[in-house]
# Entry
Amino acid sequence: MSGSWQPSATLDIIRQRSELHKIIRRFMEERNIMEVETPILSRSGNTDPNLVSLHTQLLEFDTNNSLPFYLNTSPEFAMKRLVASGSGSIYQITKVFRDGEKGRYHEPEFTMIEWYRIGFDHHALMDESEKFLLQLGFEKCDRHTYVDAFESSTGLNPHTAETKKLYDMAVNNGLTQSKSNRRTILDFLFSHCIAPGLKGKNPIFIYDFPVCQAALARIRNDDPPVAERFELFIDGLEIANGFHELCDAKEQLTRFQDENIMRINQGLVEIPIDHYLIEALKQGLPDCAGIAMGFDRLLMKTTGMDTISNVMVFGHDRC
# Structure
């Protein structure tokens, strides 16, 4: 056992953390967005190869069998099931969990604000997110398409450049993986070549991502097609990830299956797919947009703290 018994954050930061909860709830109430709670444990996990889910075993009372359950990396799947059931616009402030993440900006357990807006696309949700940030004292947000941000930093078009060219640039910037797909290469180049250039500026939305990075966003058939997704950066730090949500059950299942294939190819374990979500999408998800925003990272930027554990009541090393 190591570390201090005392809180990681000062009492002043803990009070500001409490105040941020109040601001969020007031903002949502003014817009008639209902607060909900969904389970932290699920029989299915997140198939994204870039995430490592924490899991546990639960004993069935009647059979004494041990069943695997995954701790949420995000409440997204359950919240979209609620939206499909007719809940209307909803939000949640909840704990989420990701294994293998510990550092200046990462903790294995952290807090997320997530909300879904019926009838919104990703542009409307960026507008609303900006109004929220303005209430917290941030400046007006800048907006750049993914292709503009990428080309201005690398000289390459992320939609049309040959994967070999992208890979060679990534290697020149420190990529050591010999087996990398286009999605992984673009993620690496963005974090190493584009994100550092976003420091010291107004909050910035980067939107309309390459199709290979669509995740749970719908695809718009431009030339070339783009994923209707955005990320929010404050002083170079990713704060939020938003989507014009995919409503197609068949396409979503295919993406989950493809991600599991990627996991297997990378030597990772296959993750059970959330078929409850697939069934909900088959019944019909209303046109909507959703955003997941890191509560702790946001608090870092409102308080001037440079380490995530300093805005958490008890960081991982004091639990």
